[in-house]
Amino acid sequence: MQTMDPVEQCDVLCVHDDRIDLVNRTLPDEDTLADLAEVFKVFGDTTRMRILCVLFESELCVCDLAKLLQMTQSAISHQLRILKTNKLVKARREGKTVFYSLDDDHVRKIIEMGLEHLYE
Amino acid sequence: MQTMDPVEQCDVLCVHDDRIDLVNRTLPDEDTLADLAEVFKVFGDTTRMRILCVLFESELCVCDLAKLLQMTQSAISHQLRILKTNKLVKARREGKTVFYSLDDDHVRKIIEMGLEHLYE
DNA sequence: TTATCATATGAACACTTATTCATATGTTTC
DNA sequence: GAAACATATGAATAAGTGTTCATATGATAA
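Structure tokens for the assembled complex are given below, as produced in the milestone run.
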């Protein structure tokens, strides 16, 4: 078995140092990369994706979302919280009812990009 | 405690049937929604996002990726498999070495959209 | 104020998933 | 052929996450 030291492995025969230098100069910092992954993680759940797509057409209250998606109010509420924290949806209160809608147009564009990728 | 039946809840006071009809006519089918979430799930991991961003500049072999990201060859290989299965990267063999690169321009665009969302 | 309705949330559980370890596969060189 | 190297992969473990259940909060109406 070869050594598994992540820093020193195969440094003679395979590593292409010129390319590594290039990449290191232009790579986003680790915090940005983590934030990026975090955003996409929010899109990466069926329930949340269904909520977002449903909100393409119209703002909806929690109760309507639950009925549409055939899920409990609690499950929807938990997911809406994640979507709101990550600024994918925004909330508007009207009496007892809270209406949710897409936060901005990036959400739409990101999802459309995903669809394009699926159907390429 | 209120009833939790997902189909029949709060059907008198809250549900906005006109909006629900509108949404149901335009919502992508469940398979598409699941595939969409699946794609974004692939972007939603720090290691895979780091791999993708590193591949922005240049194709790289597994060994270089492991060195760059300070991770074991095995961990990188497992993640590359997921990226390849979902058509985010492609592989090119050259002797013992396998070079990976971004599969198409959608990957770039999707990540750029994510960055835009972060910095809005 | 009390009752009722819509929504939010904490804790527990089940399920998923990323990494590690060990090993297998595929390629080149001797 | 055997040895060496780069990569791939199966199994196990640990960490993360979505849903449920129970309950809390906030708002309206009587």
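The mean pLDDT of chain B is 86. The first helix of chain B runs from residue 17 to 26. Further analysis is deferred to the final report.
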